[in-house]
Design goal:
The protein has about 260 residues and is of the alpha/beta class. About 35% of the residues lie in helices and about 20% in strands. A five-stranded parallel beta sheet has the order 2-1-4-6-7, with helices on both faces. A two-stranded parallel sheet has the order 3-5. Strands 8-11 form a two-stranded antiparallel sheet. The structure holds flavin mononucleotide. The site of flavin mononucleotide has 27 residues, from helix 1 and strand 6.
Length: about 260
Amino acid sequence: MTKIYYFSGTGNSLWSAKKIAQTIGECELFNIGNEVQNSEISIEADTVVFVFPSYAYGLPLAVSRFVKNVIFKTPYLAAFVTYGSSPGGSLAALSRILKKKNINSLFFGRIPAVENYLAMFGPPKAKTLERRLSLQKKATEEAARCILERRVNRVNTVRPFSALVSLLFLLGIKIFYKHYRLSSECNGCGICEKLCPVSAIVMQSGRPVFTKKCEHCQGCVNICPLRAIQFGRVKHGTPGYRHPEISIDELARYEY
Ligand SMILES: Cc1cc2nc3c(=O)[nH]c(=O)nc-3n(C[C@H](O)[C@H](O)[C@H](O)COP(=O)(O)O)c2cc1C
């Protein structure tokens, strides 16, 4: 049995996780956003797979917190980072945590995908979108092959620049949640609350309130159907991004 753990704001990592599951068969899929609520957990499986996005050359906080809390009973673990331009030291950060976990065989892989940080880069152009989706498909097929062949590799864990960028980001997310703005188009549909992988959005008097649990995954900003959630370059009406083959319902689901 293979257990696949994913974290996903806009569906890229979920899409790759699902594709890997379909290709290798006999898999269970788990949303780290849900699992992270538990403290210490034990994962027993023939193979464990992680799929998650790169955040500021590092790991999403939910992922690092989760992995630190796990007792692994597995002979093989493969981890894949999805990214928009360069994942920097994301895999190095994970490798540093896994070093202490006594797993014999590890594999680390990269999956190029569509950049979802619209707040900084703006919406992707149609051509870029098409190219990155095709790269993601190829890299995900290769990822599944690597798992089936139980390939093993190592990453350089010394990445000081990435560690610094990642640290600044982790400081940033302590305040970013205060800077989301709602346009008057918000009708209180609550989709953002359901989507949030770390339950950081709560509905109060029919309006979403952003709390300090926010990890800045940008799911809400990208997926709000009325384009009413604003942050950085994302203003009312800026087109959002969601992986075209992942539905809102799937993103909001916790387990498969
Ligand atoms: C806060 C934030 C930081 C990001 N930082 C990076 C980065 O350092 N390098 C990169 O290539 N992509 C970066 N991205 C883009 C995502 O890693 C990429 O789009 C990923 O595939 C999104 O996966 P998801 O749809 O599963 O959430 C960042 C995205 C967000 C929201």
